[in-house]
Structure formats: C-alpha cells, structure tokens
Amino acid sequence: MTVFWEKHRKQIFWLIVAAAFFMIYAYNLLTPYWSDDYAYLMEVRKAESLGDLIRQQYGEYLSNSGRVVGQFNVRLSLSVNKQVFNLINSFMFTALVLLMYGNIRRKKKYDIFVLLLIITFLWRFAVSFGQTMLWICGACNYLWGSVFILGFVTFYRYFLSRTDKIKHGIPLAIISFFFGVLAGWCNENSSGGGFLLVLMFAFNFWMSRKKLGKRRIYPFMVSGICGMCVGLLGMVSAPGVRKRSATMSEGEYSGLVGLLSRTYKITMNLEELFFTVIVITIVVLVLLVLQKRLQSWQQIRNSETVIFLVAAVATGYALALAPTPMNRAFFGAGVFLFIACIQGMIDVADSEQAIRAAKYGLVSVLCVWLAFTYLGNLVNLARIYREERERIELILADKNDPDGDGIVVVPQLRKEFETVFSTAHESDMTEDKDYWINRFYEIYYDVGNITAIPREEWNERYGK
C-alpha cells in the first residue's frame, strides 16, 4: 500500500485538490442570495455599465466602507449570473488551499498529509464558514481578500528566495507595487497582518544577506511594501470608515477603558473560535523547543511557525482599535494561525512513533469528521435552498396574480435545518414587516409587504 501511495503521490494530490473544489462547489450551488446580497442587488440592477458600478462603489467609499476591492467584487459578482460566482468562488477556495500549501516549507513534494490538514482545518476551524466562504458579501471580502493577501505574501517570498533569477527588476517592482496595493486594500486587519508578514520576511532576508555580505535590498521589496502601505492607507482613511466607526461606537466605552474592554472581548473570541488550534500550536512549540529547534534568537526569528503565529496574533488584536467586530473579522487571523500550526507540525521531528501516530491520527480523525459533517450539512443546505425557493415562488405568485393584494405571508426557515455552513437563519425574515431583511425582499421583488411566520403556524393557516 505504501509503495502504491508513493508511486502515485502526484496523481492522488491533484485528485484531492479536485475533490476539494467540487466539495465547495456543491455547497455554493446550494447557497442562494442572502441578507445584504439583496441590498447590493437593488443597487447593481440600476447599473447599466461597468462605469456605473464604479460610481456606485465610489459612493460607498464616501459613505460606508473603505474596502474597495472586496465590495467592488461583490458588485461584480451580483451583476452576473449566480452560477458564475459559484465557479469563481470555488476556484478561490481552492486557491486559498494551494496558497496555504505553498507557504509551508520543508514538506515533501506533493505532500498529501499537509494538503489534507489544510483542507480539514479550513472546513473544521475557519470562522463562520457560511458567512466567509459561501455568502457573496462575505466571501468577496474574506475568502477572496485572504487569497489576494496570501497571494502577495507568496509572490514576495518567492522572489526573496530567488533573487538570483530576477532579470527584469523594474517591471517586477511595478508589478510588486500594484499587487501590494491590491493586497493592502482588502481588509483592515487581515491586510495589516499580511503587511506585517512581508516586513518580517524582508527583515530576515536583509539580516541573512548582511551576514553573507551580499546585496540586501531589491526594488521589488521596497515597491511591494510601499504598495501595501498605499492600499492600507486608502482603505482606513476612507470617509465612509469614519462615519461607520462613529455609528458602531455609540454606546461603547472610549479611551483606555474601551481599549481594554475590546481587548478582553477579542481574547474571549479567540478562545471560542480557535481554542483547539491554539492548543495544538502550543504543543507543537513545546516540542520544537525540546527538540532544540527554537533555542537561539536566530532560530526563533527565522521560524515560519513563529512568524505566522505573530501575524495571527497581531491580526486578531488589531481589531481592538475598532468598534467590537463580528466574528467573521477573525477569518484572516485564522488563516495565519492554521499555517503556523501546520508548519510547526512539519518541523517537529517525528522520529518517535508516538509523534508520528499523533500527526497521522489527527489528520485521519479530521478527515472522518469532514466526511460525516459534509454529507449531513449538504442535506441541510439542500433543505434550506428548497424552502427559500418555495418562499420566492410564493412572493412571485402573489406579485403576478392580478387579484393579489401585495401582502405576502411566507414560512420562516425550519430551525432544525440551521447550520454553520449557511447564514440563512441569522438573517431570516420575521413577523415584523418592517424588519430590515423583510424590507429588502419587499423592495427587490416589488411587493407591498412580506411577513414570515413559523412553519408550523403557516402550514395550519394555509393548509400545507
């Protein structure tokens, strides 16, 4: 069996990558428009050209958000058929898997163990999976943003390790600048974490070259860092950011007390979201110290486990500078933490059988968990999708009925179908016709008013 595994390692590797794509693609197919998607759909359908979408985004930059890259991708995604987004979003998930894989060093060629760890970590521990991976407004900001950020980090590290192959320094510097702007303009704290990663890798490169007496600075290094600075400053200085922060800060503590309060909440959030991964990472760090791989300052400074862990902590606690965030804001911190943890597992020498058993036992348990969880929640997503289609048909039937009164009553989604892989229940319609999501449906489908009542009550009242 081992001989077969090694002989066909490359084919098995790419088969797993393809399986990862189709797994997330199936979930994308069963995820309709939800929540704020409707708010943007109402705007996007007014646009008649790409220029109109750009003007809409500029208006949002002035009034609500500085995340130009993510929010503009939302508009582009909603301006085309949902099937286009399903494909692109599935490719983005696969790209994130491969970028995380590419940032882990000292692994085998076509390392199936590392690949399976990355895939299972994302499915098991990624923050608010339904919001950050599948929901259009969330995926364009968090999943796609992480791909751009980690893509730039990967690009930067690639050329740091291959400076002898750089033949066109100026074009590379220009590309690095604009790629840096893109990565820096994605997400306030995650882009900041990516910026910190680039600085740490550049510093380590500078220190190693200084010791060897070789050239320490290349144009792409400087232009990339400058590009990220431009992107970050363009995002955080947006007029809309100040207005939104002022609204979200109402009722919160200010000054030092507010900072300490938010720091405490972030610590509790990190524990809730990543406790298992944090424990594994701590065990890995202890093993690395015992194996004398993290003793000197140079070893610590050059350890990718430490570097990505520092970036993860900084990305998480940077949120203390802003009003209390939603859990999905920790998505980028989670990606950096997963890389740190998996890199540490690779660096731990597994000469002892107990360590090998722990490594392969962990990935085996996670794969079994994923198999059961995936199938169960695939069914739940199909049920939610069916109920949402039923509600839309009821709304459209009343709208198209000449005798319709424009007052539509639909059933709420069944609670027993609720899953972390969908944001449906978190933004479900209510009995209050003036509730924000009810209003979105009313305006988008152009009906008088919509109320939603529990499924059991709806069945009794309308005989279904």
The gist of it:
The chain contains 21 helices and 2 strands. The chain is an all-alpha fold and 464 residues long.
Can you walk me through this structure?
- It is a single chain.
- This protein is mainly alpha-helical and 464 residues long.
- Helices cover 72% and strands 2% of the residues.
- The chain contains 21 helices and 2 strands.
- Strands 1-2 form a two-stranded parallel sheet.
- Strand 1, helix 20 and strand 2 form a beta-alpha-beta unit.
- Helix 4 packs across helix 14 and helix 12 runs antiparallel to helix 13.
- It starts with a helix and ends with a helix.
- 38% of the residues are buried.
- How far apart lie the N and C ends? 55 Å
Gyration radius, in Å = 24 Å
Question: Helicity, in percent?
Answer: over 70%
Unreliable stretches covering 5 or more consecutive residues: none
Please give the largest β-sheet.
Answer: 2 strands, parallel
> Quick check: average pLDDT?
91
Number of helices: 21
- Alpha-beta content class: mainly alpha
Beta strand %: under 5%
